[in-house]
Structure formats: C-alpha cells, structure tokens
Amino acid sequence: MGWWILVDGALSFSQHTYMSWDAKQIEGFLQNIPPEPGVYLMKDKGGKVIYIGKAIHLYNRVSNYFQESGDPRPFVKLLSGILDRIDTVVTSNEKEALILENELIKRHRPRFNVLLKDDKNYLYLRLDPKARWPRLELVRRRKDDDAEYFGPYHSAFAARQTFALINRHFGLRTCSDTMLKNRSRPCLEYSMGRCPAPCLELISTADYEQRVQAALLFLKGRHDDVRRMLAKQMNLAADNENFEEAARLRDRLKAIESAMIKQAVILPTTQDLDAIGFARAGDCAAFAVLRFEKGVLVERVPYILDGVVAPEEDLLESLAFQYYGRAPIPAQVLLPPGQLERTAPLEEVLGARSQRAVKVIRPYRGPNADAIRMAIHNAELLLAEGLGSRKTRDRALARVAELLGLSSLPRRIETYDMSQFQSAEPVGAMVVFINGQPEKKAWRTYGIRLEEGPGDVGFMREVLKRRFANLRDNPEDMPDLIVLDGGESQLSVGISVMAEAGLSIPMVALAKARVIDHGFGPSKKIPERLYVQDVVAGVADSAGFRQIVPQAHDAGLHLLMRMRDEAHRFVVKFHRQRRFKKGTGSILDGIAGLGPKRRVMLLRHFRTVGNIKSASLEELNEVLPMGVAKAVFDKIHGTE
Description:
Layout: E1 3-7, E2 10-14, H1 23-30, E3 38-44, E4 49-55, H2 58-63, E5 83-90, H3 94-108, E6 123-127, E7 136-139, E8 148-153, H4 156-170, H5 177-182, H6 188-191, H7 205-219, H8 223-239, H9 243-262, E9 273-281, E10 284-293, E11 296-306, H10 312-323, E12 332-334, H11 344-354, E13 359-361, H12 367-387, H13 390-404, E14 412-421, E15 424-434, E16 437-438, E17 444-447, H14 455-473, E18 481-485, H15 488-501, E19 507-511, E20 514-516, E21 524-526, E22 529-536, E23 539-548, H16 555-588, H17 596-606, H18 609-614, H19 617-621, H20 626-636
Parallel strand pairs: 9-12, 12-13, 14-18, 18-19
Antiparallel strand pairs: 1-2, 3-4, 3-5, 6-7, 6-8, 9-10, 10-11, 14-15, 15-16, 15-17, 19-22, 20-21, 22-23
Helix pairs in contact: 3-11, 7-8, 8-9, 13-16, 14-15
C-alpha cells in the first residue's frame, strides 16, 4: 500500500512502505542516550536535523519512539526510512532544555517541528522616550534598543487606527528626524493644531514630555490615569483663563473616553494578561491570543498551522515559547484547562525574559475562565478557516486515500446516518462533501417506509437501495467514496445492497469512539475505528472485514469524522422537525374553522399540545369562538 503526499504543492502517490526496526538498530540508537534532562536532535543520512525535542529523562523519551505503541504521531512511522542517528545535549534542568530546544529549532528549522511564521508582516508601534522630541512610529521589527514597543498588531487597520489616534489627540510630531532638523517654518500639521512644532521649539521640552507620558500611558492601557492627567491639566488651563488650551484638552479627553467605550471586553484586573485559545482537528491547528492590557481587550493575535504532528502539550508549549520570543510578556498567561501539565518551566523562562514574575494559569471558573472560553472560540473560528483551505483539504483527502488504499483522491464523498426515537418516525440522511467541503445543495433526507424491516440495519438498507436506484439514472452524481455511520453490520448491508445494484464504489463504515465501564477496574476507551471489506489476493471475502484504527490526530480520520458529525446533525434536525410536525399537526389538522392564524393563537396561549389536550371547553373558548372550541374539544376527546 502507498499513500498520497504533497511535494512542492503538488499531490503524488508514493509506493513506499514502512520499514521496521530490528533489535540491533534500536540498540545502536539508544546506547549513548543519557538518563538526564536535555535536548535530542534526530538527523537523516545527510546529517540534516529532521526533528528536535526536549525531555526530563532523555533515555526514556527517546526509547519511546522505538516501541510499537509508544508515540502516536504520524511522522514517527516515517523515521525508520529517514533516521540515521540521534545526538543529545544534556542540560541542568527542564527550563534550560526548553530554552535550548527553542534556539535549536530556530537555527535548524527541522521539517517535523512546528514553527511560527515570521512576523515581518505584523506591525509594532515604537516610541523612544529618551529622544529629545519623541515620535510614534509604525515598524515591522522589534530591535534590541531602549525604545518602547507595542504589538505585534496582526490587524494593520488596528495598528494604524491607534497610530492615528495618538498623533491626532496627543499632539506628537510625525515628521522624520531629518525633516525635524532642517525645517525653517511650521508645517501644515501645526496649522491644523495637530503638532506643537517642536522643530522650531514652539513648545517647551517639559510640556512636550507631558504629551509623551500621556501617550505612553494610553498605549499601556492605563486609560484612567490618562483621563485623570488630562482632566487635571484642563482644569488648570481653565483656572489660568487659557480657554483655548482647555478646549483642546477637553477634546482630547472626549476622544480617549470614546476609545475606552469601544473596548467592549474588560476584566476586573489591573494587570496585563494574555488568554491563549487552542483548537485542533487532525493535522491542522489554530492558536489565538487575546491580549488584555490592564484588563482591557486590545488585540487578537491569530495563527493557523497545518501539517502539525506534535501532541497538544508539546505543541502549545512550543508555540507559547516562540510567540513570547517576539511579543510582550504579560504578568499572567491564561491557558485552557487540561493543557500543559507542567507550567513551571514556561513560567521560569518567561519570568527570566521579562525580568519579573510571570504566572501561567489554567482557570476553571470566574472572569479568567470566561476570557479563556472567548479565546478558544476565536481559535475554533480560525480552525474552521484553516480547514477550508485547499491545501489542507487536499492533504486530508490524500490521507483518506492512504488509509483506505484508494488509487485516486475521493473528490465526492457521501455519508449516511439514520435517526429514530423509540422506533417513532425513523428517518435517514445523506450528506455530500466535494473536494473536502460540504455541498449542501446535494444533501438529502429520507422518510423511512419500513420496506426493509425495523432497526438501523433495515433503515440503512432501505435508504441505500433508494439512493443506488437514483444513481443508475444519474451516473454523473456517482460518489468516489461512501461513508456509513456504524460498524460491521452497516458495512455488510451496504456491500450487499451495492452488489444487488451492480455498482462498485469504495465503502467504509466509521464507528464512534466509546468508553466501556464495567463498574470495577479501569474503564476501557475504544477509539474511532474504520471498517472496510477484507481483500485477499484481489478477491473480496464477503464474510470478512478489516478494522483500521488511525492515530487520534490523523487528518483523514478527522475529515471522515467531520462528515459523519454533519450527517448526524442533519438527520437529527430532520427527525425533530418530523416529530414536531406530527405532534402539533395530527390533532389540530382538519378541524373546521381552525385555520393557521387560530392555530398559532391556540399554541401561543397554551404553549404545548399537552396543555391543549388537558384544557376544558371553557378554557378553549377563551381563545377560540365557541363553535371552533367545541370542534377542537370533541376531536381531542374522540366525541366528534
């Protein structure tokens, strides 16, 4: 069996098969691995670093790669065809290992490690308070200087809006240093009242410094301090009968208050903090940072990563470490509960970088938990955006083809699910995805006629027979793959119905993950499973099925799960509509004088059909004319 791979943006089919390790090879890799904290570097035959990791106990971590069920990441399966040697660097503790791992990843850029994209497209606001006449600048890079930097701003609009607000209402110069030195008369900005013309020293250094400090306080989120400062200056100007300056300060104060009102999200804290949301589906991950300055939400920084193979804990720690190598470090970092079991190493590293204590918190309740939920929701929206990209969809389709042994990508996939409630109103549904995206105009629902017997298997047989009969008349809608919600029973039915219809379409059953708890001993978790027909020497064995258990974050598995979940949501919605229609319509239909308007009045008054059934004739008469009320009462009680 081979698999589809992306090479320079193009899909190609590889016939490569996984090689296995022998005892001698494993011994050669492990003989020099020490039982100490540090970093390990995996290298290929050409000496190129392909993966870098850290560990508290190097030997235990590295030996895990060579155990059959040791490491679930997809890239581990490929190592036997690539890996040539493993080098290690021993450190004193886990904190040092984390720092060294990050530095080595940036230097070697290994293919199997996650790397944040370069931030050259993001904007920072820079202000150097030590300059004689400081000005605010928009820059692409943070430099190792004494200036104050604010950002990065992922939204260029947000950065430029803040830049314009500061320059307009705080009156800092906007000209370059060269222009400042060579100007002989005030510019248009001075005439418009936006700049006090420090180029000609028409403002004192002390007064200009006040403007700079107010701008810095505003950029740091200390809006209340700025407001108090401006109010004090405005009152002082008014007391000195400098009414023009007082009016200018009043306008500046209003602008700042207006900017504060626009900040709809405020936390009850005076500290800067970041809430980090994380979402993942298969090998696509999204990472959203909500930046709060003094409790006020000021920015959302998003990242979408594809081709991700690392487990969540390693991934989130690595992303956070890389992100705070370029972004300002707050006093608190909020992470989703259940993520990053050990927070101490990250706290130590961030604290050393920022020269103050930094707390990494996983809140379960309160305002901080609300902030985390908001960050997770933002990450989920970003993830949906990432899953919709053509590159990600093609990679997931390629993985589906690899899992099922298909010779071409399944561009059109149909997924089927059934729904019933206590055997009432059974229904089925078909969901269609084309090129990894939902094609909703092709979705169909089926009311079960019980032509093939009761139960999910009978319902599935009926729906597939009706669908396959339609396919014979419309061969242009022929799917490349059929997915059934269920296990071997559903697959057996699907294959037999397809054989009766004379069709040959790849088919797979997808069984949900579940937990078995016998009430004693540890519970057993059964993962998502795929069932396909077993084929020996090219001949289908109708009695046998093969079970496939993909890795938890397999991109192909997650695409199939997404389609299965959409089919389930769609069929349940249709089932509820049918039950509601039957429950509200069977009693009230066919009553003389009870039209749509009176039916709505009746339901609004009594709320439920049960209340209508238990209502007396007098109570019905409060809503309906006596003749219509008596007709309703008689039908309900069988006296008509």
